[in-house]
Amino acid sequence: MQPANPHALDSTELGAWLRLQLTPGIGSVHGCRLLKAFGLPAAVFSQSLSALRAVVPERQAQALMQTPADLAPGLRALLQWLDQGGGQHRLVTLGDPTYPASLLDIYDPPLMLYVKGSDAAWQRLPQAPCMAIVGSRNPTPQGADNARAFARSLAQAGLCIVSGMALGVDAAAHRGALDILESSLPTIAVVGTGLDRVYPAQHAALASAIAERGLVLSEYPLGTAPLPAHFPRRNRLISGLARATLVVEAALQSGSLITAQQALEQGKDVFAIPGSIHSTQARGCNALIKQGAQLVDCVQDILDAPGFQSMQVRQASAPSLDDPSADASDANTALLDALGFDPCSLEVLQSRTGWDTARLQAQLMELELLGKVGRLPGGLLQRLGGDSP
User: Fold this and answer.
1) What pLDDT is stored for residue 347 in this prediction?
2) 187: helix, strand or coil
């Protein structure tokens, strides 16, 4: 029987890779320099101190001469994790032929990737066009709806949605992608902890669903806690895996803008959904658009961009407002289109639709019960939900 990972390393090789990762001060940049100079990790650790000094600074060279105290327990935990994964756990090193090619192009690719997901999903990754969707951990209800709707439509068009499994926009994007049952690789979560942990804890079910149908990736060793510095750093992998990045909602100081900046540095496109000038959560997106990010208000804006033009989504024509034969669903869609997404008075809405007051009020009541329209102070109405963009 063919093993799940034909390129799996033996325990000695794994130990050498893990030692390189755990050596203080090495990291991705110094690690890549060492591998380029000496070959595989085992060869790195056979070098003299003077040879190491020629490649990395003194402190890192000295550290390489010592065996990390947590290497032995870390290797035991790693071997156990791989053995107990039921074929869904794998470790992919920088020397593995299945290492994602898109990450090889970034400045500091991880030395090792810890992966949860099926073998079929992992094999699908090289051919999967990926789109990153990121945004606020505290989005507005409309922002969360936008994230889920865009992710759903993009996944339906054949894209794999990459995000960070954080609260808010990230989670909504993953869920939108998972809505598309026919997708063979709907979504990838890049996390900032070891894969034996789930952060935030309330996303345990979401993490399980992603691993079941997609992939969960981390560059951090098992047991790694959710330290604040890890999350901005993992963002380079989110943008690195993707062809482009969509920012849904973001404050001016946010991790989402870090992801966007990293995407730009990697030569990738950045898209942003605009928002109200009065909304704190829209200021980051509006600033990105000022700086040259592409404004999007529908999925087709993304699919028309270079690199996505072969993708197509099904687009339904909007029903006529004046069609008396339209059913309730068509009437709801037509009324939502007339309402738009800005606050609107009943009088303005009536002038847009041409409907009498009784019909308009009845249709609005139905939409309120469905949670798609809300009433604001001053008698204004506002659309709350978002259909597929």
Assistant:
1) 79
2) strand
Say yes or no: 56 and 165 in one domain. Answer: no
234 & 368 share domain: no
Are residues 262 and 340 part of one domain? no
Residue 375: Cβ within 10 Å count: 13
Match 């990395």 to its residue by tokens: 56
Q: Which of 48, 80, 112 is where one domain is finished?
A: 80
pLDDT for position 318: 34
Low-confidence ranges of the chain (pLDDT < 70): 1-7, 309-329, 385-389
281 in the same domain as 132: yes
DSSP H/E element including 218: strand 215-218
In the chain, the amino acid numbered 185 is L
Q: What is the DSSP string of 98-158?
A: TS-HHHHTSSS--SEEEEEE-HHHHHHGGG--EEEEE--SS--HHHHHHHHHHHHHHHHTT
Check which CATH number belongs to the domain holding 61 and give it.
Answer: 1.10.150
Full-model pTM: 0.80
Closest CA to 196 of 94, 295, 115, 270: 115
CB 109 within 8 A of CB 102: no
181-234 pLDDT per residue, tens: 999 999 999 999 999 999 999 999 999 999 999 999 999 999 999 999 999 999
What does the block give as tokens for 35?
């591998």
Query: Residue type at 219?
Result: E
Residue 5 is predicted with a pLDDT of 56
Which domain range does residue 368 map to?
Answer: 328-383
CA proximity to 257, closest of 169, 354, 141, 129: 169
